[in-house]
């Protein structure tokens, strides 16, 4: 491994398995908040339901969000994610803009161009991302100082509520509701706000449409270049994580695990991995394939099994179950970063962290810098 100029997290990944946090949405639900709580005074007159807009809690219930970050950190997380999974103008529009389909219209690029240019949505998206990054930064530094162990803030960049790969119209296979450039613009705005708030890393996660992810990765590259971060050596490491179906395909775009890696390898990410998906019991062969093909760190943070409305967290697997599966992944030499997605509370992360203590990380034989120099902006969308 090349040591010069190495990011502190990269050094950790060579010596032990790093822990990433669990599910923000799952943990929020344990606090029993209602519609009135997420609205607060600021959004009390909103005409649409907001309770499922968990990112908004960073603005209206910051004490709760900070408490969740604290709990994950105290459970052993090295990396905590910002509460920004849906913090783009495109996704926020679902909660603040009337759906034209309810009035005989349709969502199309003309509709989304207005969304991209909407001052309210842009300001809201910026504020959520910046505030959430600042909240994570404060607690990562606080717990890091208290434990004398550095913690890292990952700016969470989710998959959006629209797809670039598929048409929603069965009569028009070529139709797309949104354009690549519009998606890229929304992501670029999010990336700049996450950086402004103090993120250490940028995490493009839960990828179900590889073309959406490509837009996010191009946006990151262009932000680095346009904002002078490249020249100043201030580029943030990029982490990439996909969600897969039963055949190991990335959902809508239907890329196999190997094809997914080939599609993003040029980005030279710090890590690539799998999250969310079907739960850890069905993930092993796909994670194993990715581990064999990729020459960067491998991350894995699965759902706590499949959804189950009768369980306490809404998912089947408890802390000890997740700990057992993740330990199996570690003993198979498959992972460098481990944690949990939907259904994983701070208690799950604490059990995973304990189970992985002393487990050696997957061996890293090359650095991201040794991969292709091709940048995402130089690859055709």
Keywords, separated by commas or semicolons:
381 residues, alpha/beta, TIM Barrel, 8-stranded parallel sheet, 14 helices, globular, disordered C terminus
**In the CATH hierarchy, what is the superfamily?**
Homocysteine-binding-like domain
CATH fold naming: TIM Barrel
Helix content: 40-55%
Number of strands: 8
Q: Percent of residues in beta strands? A: 5-15%
Q: What is the total number of structural domains?
A: 1
Q: Please count the helical segments.
A: 14
| Strand adjacency order, main sheet | 1-8-7-6-5-4-3-2
- CATH class assignment: Alpha Beta
Distance between the termini: 32 Å
The general outline is: globular
In angstroms, what is the radius of gyration? 20 Å
Q: What does the average pLDDT come to?
A: 92
Structural class: alpha/beta
What CATH architecture do you see?
A: Alpha-Beta Barrel
